[in-house]
Amino acid sequence: PRAAPPGPGGAASPRTEKKKGKKRRQAAFLSLFVLVLALFVRRDAVPEIKREMFDAAEYAGGARSLVDAAASFFARQTSTPFFFSSSSSSAEDLQSVLDAWNQTRSSAPLLTEWGERMAASDVSSTDHHPRPQLRRPGRWENLNGFWDFKVEGAAHGASAPSSEGYEEKILVPFSIESALSGVARSVGSGSQLVYRRTLSAERGDGADRRILHFGAVDWKTWVYVNGRLVGTHQGGYDSFSFDVTNFLLPSGESELVVVVWDPTEDGQQPHGKQWADKGSDKMIAPAGMWYTSVTGIWQTVWLETVPGTFYVESMRLTPSIRSRSLHAEFNTVSPTGLVPFVKLTAFDEHGIVGFGSGWSGESLTLKFGEHHIPKLWSPDQPFLYNLTVSLHLAQNGEALDEVEGYFAMREISLGRNGDAVQFLLNGEPTFHYGVLDQGWWPDGLYTPPSEEALAFDIQSAKDFGFNVIRKHAKVESDRFYHLCDKLGIMVWQDMPSSSGVYMWSPDGAHDFREGVKSPETASGFVGELKGVVKGLYNFPSVVAWIPFNEGWGQFSTEDIFAWLSSYDPQRLAWVSGGNDFGNGAAFDRHVYPGPSFVRLEECRASVLGEFGGNGFSIPGHAWGGGEGEEGGQGADYDTFVDWGYAQVRTLKELERQYGLQMTLLADLVGQGLSGAIFTQLSDVESESNGILTYDRKVAKLGASSVRSLHEKLFAAGRAPKEGLHREGAPPRKARCDWEQN
To answer: Please, which residues bridge with residue 436 across strands?
Structure first.
């Protein structure tokens, strides 16, 4: 963002600058020490340095000296205070663990460039806060790194796991099935995965509290500290946390144990595109659309220090362009029982531009200054305001807690553009043209190998000229949505699907039909959906919710949409591809390869929720090694062709196919289509229909030529849609529900 301090991308606050200065001085002293040490390092005595040097040299073009390589290696392995948890963490132990991890990584079917060059210690960096919209700089510790682990029979929380059997290491936050975890094997629904590490935090005198945060763990989790159960959580996509202060020892290290059980397709919980048993007769065709299952911790684990008096636990920010204000609700925790006074301050690149205050528990309003015209967020101009929130004992008291975040002035709605119902962004008709993004990585599976890798996918979608990412059957870490906010791209967010009775047809033959779930399963789904919506509420890039896709696990559609529209009225929601119930903001169909006409409705936008699927494989960049001729497909790809996906044999043919599809799509936009999603951003395992290869090393289409085609779609979207309803069309209703608000 371009906003002033203290924010996610602008200049830092004085306090933050002071801490950065200290870190820079420490780094300078360490670098000097390493350079001197490197003079005495014999190249043949340190094989790990040689590997680091040659990997880096190959990537950077060979211009790196032995001294530079030694400095880089030692700095990366010692740059974080703690990333190796063991009762006997000698240098030999560490080297053995690193060797095993490197061996597993190198045996992966496919690696991205970020996976190739990462160091294990990179995961414990504090450069990127895991919760960018509610930060306490310098008050958190990254717990990622090598943890002890074991796999044993599932106990389902009946008892705490024993202290025996921890003979291996896993690199958190990568799931155990991934190559970057250093393990790369499955667990199964009959077993549980048990993690262990130590915590250096102590109980303290009550002045501070210690909050243990989990970005995401798939699926059911039991957390123990010093053998005592702290709490449980079920859900693989929403974050959770526990106050562990009273479980810590008064002095010395405490033991943290995390137990995870994940039934994947054997259960009824949301699991998205994961499937453990690829030979199962329960698998829905096409078979290639199911990917390697993910078990356990797959997002950052971190420990936060908060004030013992009171602190901000969460906030809910809703912009209002019409009233030039930001409505804010806060959930504050007060172990002392005191009620805090809340102050909100907004900044742009010039300084303070808005302020609000009031007692916690009230709905507060931040109003912009009289002479400040709010800057609106859009993909073309993704402006973010920085925000500080402070808690006080009284209006004029000192701040006892302070958090940093940001917000944007953005409004998404429905409106009429001539005869067609269209999506409006900040009151202007905006055609949504997006790319389906599965969010999978060949080396990390659910977890990207680095922040840079995550940003690469988003920036690639931007460079190709898309203004939307449809995050399909997966929920990402907060870092993903923060980057979407910052780089400027809208997100249609799917709720990952669950197993259940499958009734769906592309032509809508199963509209107004749905499955039934047990009360416990239904409650679990809605609870996790609520956790996802609550967790992503403040990200301006998220503009739409898709709770059900193609009828997978669909149930209680009308009740869930009623709840969604009440809980988050600032966004749109609809069923993608069916089974349609006549509610929600859009009528959505999937057509492969397409594109094809989607009927217009009087009160809903018309959306082509999926089309494309143009398959083309590039040898050396495909899952399993990419053997075969250029254009050849994986073993399961014929199931996609049978189902309707396209298949081409040359890159030239792929380019021509896409150009023809864009010509047809531009005509459909002129006929009133409001949005479309192309399948897909990257290849994934057996699927070779990505614009990028699975390893992200090759783009199959040229960004500039594709972007020029997309500009024609956006221009057609802005143009008024006149004369669309021919004779015999149903009469227009007096007013739609959204026109009465």
So the answer is: 470
Structure-block tokens of residue 470: 């449809």
Nearest residue to 383 via CA among 353, 413, 363 = 353
Give the integer Cα–Cα distance in Å for 397 and 391.
9
In whole angstroms, what is the distance from residue 163 CA to residue 224 CA? 12
Other CB atoms within a 10 A radius of the CB of residue 218 amount to 28
Dihedral angle computed from the Cα positions of residues 436, 442, 445 and 446, in that order, rounded to the nearest 10 degrees: -40
C-alpha pair distances (Å), 598 with each of 109, 607, 668, 737: 40, 7, 8, 22
Sign of the Cα pseudo-torsion (411, 413, 416, 417, in order): positive
Q: What is the dihedral of CA 465, 469, 470, 472, to 10 degrees?
A: 120
Amino acid at 105: R
d(CA 434, CA 462): 10
**d(C-alpha 342, C-alpha 356), whole Å:** 8
Write the Ramachandran bin of 65: left for phi over 0, alpha for psi from -120 to 50, otherwise beta. beta
Contact call for residues 364 and 327 (beta carbons, < 8 A): yes
Q: DSSP 3-state assignment of 432? A: strand
Phi and psi dihedrals of 196, rounded to 5? -150, 140
Which DSSP string corresponds to 309-363? S-EEEEEEEEEETTTTEEEEEEEEE-TT-PPPEEEEEEEETTEEEEEEEEEBTB-
Task: Identify whether the C-beta of residue 266 lies closer than 8 Å to the C-beta of residue 260.
Answer: no
- Residue 228 is inside which H or E element, if any? strand 228-234
d(CA 303, CA 314): 16
Could you tell me the two tokens for 398?
A: 């000192």
The pTM of this model reads 0.89
How far is the CA of 3 from the CAs of 328, 374, 379, 406, 451, in angstroms? 20, 13, 17, 9, 21
SS3 556: coil
* 492, 467 Cβ separation under 8 angstroms: no
- Residue showing tokens 């024993």: 162
pLDDT at residue number 53: 27
Partners of 231 in beta bridges: 223
Taking the C-alpha atoms of residue 275 and residue 287, their distance in angstroms, rounded to an integer, is 10
pLDDT, tens digit (0-9, with 9 covering 90-100), for 208-238? 999 999 999 999 999 999 999 999 999 999 9
φ, ψ of residue 89 to 5 degrees: the values are -95, 60
Token readout for 44 is 């043949």
Q: Are 296 and 151 in contact (CB under 8 A)?
A: no
The token pair at 48 is: 């790990």
Report the SS3 class of residue 458: helix
Contact 546, 495 (CB under 8 A): yes
What is the spatial distance between Cα 294 and Cα 272, in angstroms, rounded to a whole number? 10
110, 64 Cβ separation under 8 angstroms: no
- Smallest CA-to-CA distance from 275 within 616, 641, 685 is with 685
Residues 32-63 pLDDT 10s: 444 444 443 333 333 332 223 223 333 333 33
Residues 6+ apart with CB under 8 A from 153: 190, 191, 192
In contact, 571 and 413? CB cutoff 8 Å = no
CA atoms within 13 A on the CB side of 158: 5
- CA angle at residue 105 from 52 to 65, to 5 degrees? 10
At 251-289, the pLDDT tens digits run 999 999 999 999 999 999 999 999 999 888 888 877 888
Give the span between the Cα atoms of 103 and 59, in whole angstroms. 19
**195: three-class secondary structure by DSSP:** strand
Burial of 605 (0-12, 13-18, 19+ CB in 10 A): buried
The pLDDT of residue 64 is above 80:
no
Q: Which 3 state secondary structure label does DSSP give 55?
A: helix
